[in-house]
Amino acid sequence: MRKLVGIGVGPGAEDLITLRALRYLERADHIFAPNNRGKTRAYDIVKDFVDEEKVVFLDFPMGEDLRGVYEDTARLIDETTKEGEVSVLITLGDGTIYTTLLEVFHRDSLNDIRMELVPGIPAFLAGINGIVEALVKKGDSFLLMDSLKDEEGLTADTVAILKTTRSGDTFHRLKAAGYYSLYLENIETDHWVMTDNPEKCKDRKAYMSLILARREPWNMAAILNRIGDRIEVL
């Protein structure tokens, strides 16, 4: 039997991967890791736990049509993984949330290989935990998006928007819709920053960023008192 395991490695801190993920990473015969124009963020999180000779980097240039890349990657995994072997494909965050991982897994060339997904911590959960706040309370609704398309139609109590590149504009649109926003960038890394001021983030275009917005105002004084200097405030 051959096996392919998809592992979400979380948002940035190596000690946030699960024990199951660690066991697979240590025992895998092959470890496939995305490479986005020289950036290997997922691999950087787990590099201390793996044998680098087992690592195969995959070119995933974000922002391009990747359908051909998915096909080529699936064929490479199929050809590389021999009978009795286990291959691992890692991804940032969790493998089921806005990820290329399942685009690869669902290719026809991998139909005869057993599969498993190991959950990872997505950035929006790491972010809300980092500021010691509730994402939703009893009776609340929550909406996750990768961009803000129609703020006038929003009804959720809390909204998370991932990979924000027009943060200042998004802040103002959410405010007009009755939301209070918080910008977080590079969550669970040494460069973690946040702000509730749209002027402070309007020119920032970090891929590893998100906005958390809710109907209830953020108590920044209380948040800062809880977290100390662990997160830089812009």
From TrEMBL:
GO biological process: cobalamin biosynthetic process; methylation
GO molecular function, one term: precorrin-2 C20-methyltransferase activity
Keyword match Electron transport: no
Pathway involvement of the protein, from the record: Cofactor biosynthesis; adenosylcobalamin biosynthesis
Cited Gene3D superfamilies: Cobalt-precorrin-4 Transmethylase, Domain 1 (3.40.1010.10), Methyltransferase, Cobalt-precorrin-4 Transmethylase, Domain 2 (3.30.950.10)
SUPFAM superfamilies (alphabetical): Tetrapyrrole methylase
InterPro entries for this protein: 4pyrrol_Mease (IPR000878), 4pyrrol_Methylase_sf (IPR035996), 4pyrrole_Mease_sub1 (IPR014777), 4pyrrole_Mease_sub2 (IPR014776), CobI/CbiL (IPR012382)
Protein name in the entry: Putative precorrin-2 C(20)-methyltransferase
UniProt KW NADP keyword: no
Record-annotated membrane-spanning stretches: none
Domain of life: Bacteria
Residue ranges of domain Tetrapyrrole methylase in the record: 3-167
Assigned keywords, A-Z: Cobalamin biosynthesis, Methyltransferase, S-adenosyl-L-methionine, Transferase
Recorded family membership: Belongs to the precorrin methyltransferase family.
